[in-house]
Amino acid sequence: MATELHETIFMAKQERHKNLFLNYKNLNIFPVELLKDEGLQFLERLYMKRNSLTTLPDNLAQKLPNLIELYLHSNNIVIIPEAIGNLARLQSLDLSNNALQLLCPEIGRLRSLRHLRLSNNQLKCLPPEIGDLQELETLDVSMNQLMGLPDRLHRCLSLQNLTVDHNLLSHVPRQLCWLHRLNQLSMAANRLTFLPLDLGRSRELQFVFVDNNVDLKGLPSYLYNKVIGCSGCGMSSPVLEGDLGEVLGEALSEALVGLPAEVKVVGSETDNVVPLEELAMRSLHRIYHHRPTDLNLLPPITLPKSLLDLLQFPLGHCHRCSQAMFTIVYPKLFPLRDTALAGVHRRTTVSFVAYCCSSHCLRSFNLQG
Prior knowledge:
It holds the Pfam family LRR_4. This is Leucine-rich repeat-containing protein 28. Keywords: Leucine-rich repeat, Repeat. By secondary structure, the chain is of the alpha/beta class. 16% of the residues lie in helices and 12% in strands. It is built from six helices and 14 strands. It has helices spanning 2-14, 60-63, 244-256, 276-289, 305-312, 359-364, and strands at 19-21, 45-47, 69-71, 92-94, 115-117, 138-140, 161-163, 184-186, 207-209, 227-229, 316-317, 324-325, 330-335, 351-356. The protein has a ten-stranded parallel beta sheet, covered by helices on one side. A two-stranded antiparallel ribbon has the order 11-12. A two-stranded antiparallel ribbon has the order 13-14. Helix 4 (276-289) crosses helix 5 (305-312). The longest helix has 14 residues, at 276-289. It is elongated.
């Protein structure tokens, strides 16, 4: 194997290859042949997946200065050197399926980076410097131990695809709503309890996946026309037997601890409580739109312009009862192949998401009849 490796690298140097494939070579150290003399100044793509590397050399950028793509998928890399930030031309970096516990801040110096894949590592946090990657289009940090995302992530103005599945996220930074090029957002299998109300205002955002967030009880109505994955949403936890008022009181007290300001009231399917902001908007909507026709004066209520606009143009209506909805909805999925709509759509594997204004409508809504 050593002879074959030596010949492969020797041939790459002699013929000035731009691509070098060193996958499945049982490497546990970075090949010194790549770093001798002037290195491979002309190499643009280096593939080294499925080896046993534990780290990268400090002089990698010096010896391979023109790297555009570096694939290190499925190694045992625990740490990457600070010198990684010197790869000025690097556009794609794949460190998936390694043993990374920390990502150095120098990653933010890769100003040409467009694709960063860090899935299936042991990362507990991301450095704020990730926000300096203004050319970044794809970020995959799924299957780690992240409890949050850096607030500066919203500076990645080119970000189109963000995947954070299978982590420990309990909330999403509201600044994500500022990523106007974001097309796909996947946060399945986390611990989300709510989503930012403004999420989905961008016309570019088309796909939102939040499956298996068991504490997520509803979705903002701004996601109304998006393709939603939410098999873990819309399910309220069952109420324990006993004195209902006491149980609910204790449950609400526990649930409200540490919750953000967006969550005004926590309810269950039993008590049919909707968030206070939503309830207020619905009440005001009825007052504004069902007052006597000869009454020209508005009710003596002062509201911000944004809320007045919402009253005039609700973001959606309940599929079950046509109730106007303003801030939150309860989603219910129906695979088209199991419904009457299957004959209307050619793609019968797509799911139809019905939105309801309450848990009561969620339970009673039946697309079949």
